[in-house]
Amino acid sequence: MRFLARGVVGIALVAAALACGPESPAPAPSSVPFVHTEVDASGALRATVDGGEPQVLLEEGLGYRVVPSPDRRWLAVEARMFSDLQVVRVFQLDDGRFVARAPDPAAAAWARAAKRDGFLLEDVLRPRAAVAGWDGDRTLLLELSGDLPGLDERWSSVERVPLPAI
Amino acid sequence: MANVRLTDALRREYEELYDTCEIRSGRFGDVDRVVDRILPNRQRYETVASGVGAPWYFVAVIHNMESSLNFKRHLHNGDPLTARTRHVPAGRPPGDPPFTWEESAEDALKLRRIDRVSSWGVAGLLYELEGYNGWGYRKFHPHVKSPYLWSFSNHYSRGKYVADGTWSDRAVSRQCGAAVLLRRLEQRGEIELRDVRAPRKPPLRYANRAIPHGEELQRFLNTFEGVTLRVDGWPGEKTSDAVERLFGFRLDGDPRGQR
Question: Which of A121, A125, A129 is the closest to B174 by Cβ?
Answer without folding.
Answer: A125
